[in-house]
Write a structure and sequence with these properties.
Layout: H1 12-25, E1 28-35, H2 36-39, E2 47-50, H3 62-75, H4 81-90, E3 94-97, E4 116-122, E5 128-132, H5 149-172, E6 176-177, H6 178-187, H7 197-206, H8 208-216, H9 222-231, H10 237-249, E7 260-265, E8 270-274, E9 282-284, E10 288-293, E11 302-303, H11 311-314, H12 329-332, H13 336-346, E12 350-359, E13 365-371, H14 373-379, E14 384-391, E15 396-403, H15 406-420
Helix pairs in contact: 5-8, 5-9, 6-7, 14-15
Length: 428
């Protein structure tokens, strides 16, 4: 048992109600696309961002290390792999954690200075979040630890062809409200983490008036961009991640709140942030996983190289809306019964139900939202997340579900007890 020196120094329930209200009141809009160095505060040309709690360069291994090297090569910070490693060793190339810059990264989560990023504003709170673009459906991607000529060319295509058109369309529309779009996508079979087919179509429709004007004006690359959006169901994932980041950050920093504001992992392990402890990370071992592998791959290939897309689960989407997307069973395994059971289980560990994001199968019950550290420890139920699975040689090799390790929540409970004199019981 971890017990605070005194009890009642803060009103936990009031703190959690405040944090929950900030989260559910968040109003994320994508208002622009900008270049990372120009729009992310504190970004410099020698900086590469990656997923997970901050670590020194020497601790990055496997695919996440290779992704960092690939980012350096793509940005022109080094001419060879060996030169990139030497510059990381010396600190000439710096590494940052995405979340520390208001950003969120898929898998390895690599950002470099020249990459375009979505700019998402929470109009109810004023905070800004960022996410870079989906590279395309080719399994070999930089965020999956791969860098070769094909990856390089696809990244340039995003920079030079896709991003300028999407940026112009968003600006002409005066921004796009993401919350109602996400809410509708849930009713159309998405959970907006591992399934974004409906949301991607809805976004394309939202920018269509601007796109038609751009076609009439013969703006370059509009046709290519719209075909890309039509062929890539995961395009919207980066918008859902940025919307989730902007929403989750709104509930950060409420003294005494035991609600989780971020879940992420790196090659080292899993980590969470909690509202009442600010920017501190609480780390545990790699997540518990189960999934379905693509043909030709085996369980022993699965590796961890980062991931911050569970920011969607943090606000009640993804695995917390799994019953909206039963078609995922064909992609990541399981069965409808298992997916429904998992989703229902999440209600036991959250503060409340989301009034905006609802699950038709449950009679339009709000999604379980805002994981409470105390309830995870009291019930033994661990948060579930839908994810892609990376292979040790790079690339995506499957998809599945993971569960956060208990150790993160135990550490968070101990910190809350010390910082806010919260009495917390941790079953052993």
């Amino acid at each position: 048992m971890v017990t605070a020196a005194t009890q009642g120094a803060v009103d936990i329930e009031k703190a959690n109600a405040d944090a929950f209200e900030r989260l559910t009141a968040a109003d994320p809009w994508v208002i622009d696309v900008g270049i990372a160095r120009e729009v992310i505060p504190g970004y410099t040309d020698d900086l590469i961002l990656t997923s997970g709690a901050p670590m020194p360069w020497s601790e990055y291994v496997g695919g996440q290390r290779e992704a960092l090297v690939g980012g350096a090569l793509f940005e022109g910070l080094a001419a060879t792999r060996e030169e990139a490693i030497a510059k990381f060793d010396s600190g000439e190339i710096r590494i940052g954690a995405c979340h520390d810059y208001g950003a969120v990264g898929s898998l390895a989560g690599i950002y470099t200075a020249s990459m375009p990023v979505f700019v998402v504003e929470n109009r109810s709170g004023g905070n800004i979040a960022f996410c870079n673009f989906y590279e395309g459906k080719e399994p070999r991607r930089l965020n999956y630890g791969c860098y070769d000529q094909g990856v390089h060319d696809r990244l340039l295509y995003v920079n030079d062809v896709l991003a300028p058109v999407v940026a112009e369309a968003i600006r002409r529309q005066g921004g796009i409200a993401l919350k109602p779009l996400i809410a509708r996508a849930l009713r159309m079979g998405d959970e907006v983490h591992s399934r974004n087919a409906a949301a991607s179509v809805l976004f394309s429709r939202a920018i269509l008036p601007a796109v038609l004007d751009m076609v009439a004006e013969e703006v370059p690359n509009v046709r290519e961009t719209m075909l890309h959006l039509a062929e890539n169901d995961y395009f919207f994932l980066r918008l859902s991640m940025a919307a989730a980041k902007a929403s989750a950050d709104a509930m950060a920093g409420v003294a005494g709140s035991t609600l989780v504001t971020a879940m992420a992992f790196s090659c080292r392990g899993f980590a969470i942030r909690v509202s009442g402890t600010g920017d501190r990370w609480f780390e545990g071992p790699p997540p518990i996983h189960e999934g379905k592998l693509f043909a030709g791959h085996s369980e022993d290939e699965i590796t961890w190289m980062g991931g911050e897309s569970p920011i969607t689960e943090t606000i009640g989407l993804g695995g917390f809306a799994q019953a909206c997307a039963l078609s995922l069973q064909d992609y990541q395994g399981g069965s409808p019964e298992v997916m429904i059971s998992r989703n229902l289980e999440m209600y036991d560990i959250v503060h409340g139900e989301n009034p905006h994001y609802r699950i038709p199968l449950f009679g339009f019950r709000g999604t379980p939202t805002a994981v409470d550290v105390r309830k995870v420890l009291a019930t033994g139920v661990l948060p579930v997340m839908d994810v892609g699975l990376a292979g040790r040689d790079g690339g995506q090799i499957g998809a599945g579900v993971i569960r956060a390790p208990r150790e993160c929540f135990e550490q968070a409970a101990e910190a809350l007890a010390v910082d806010h004199a919260i009495e917390t019981e941790v079953p052993r």
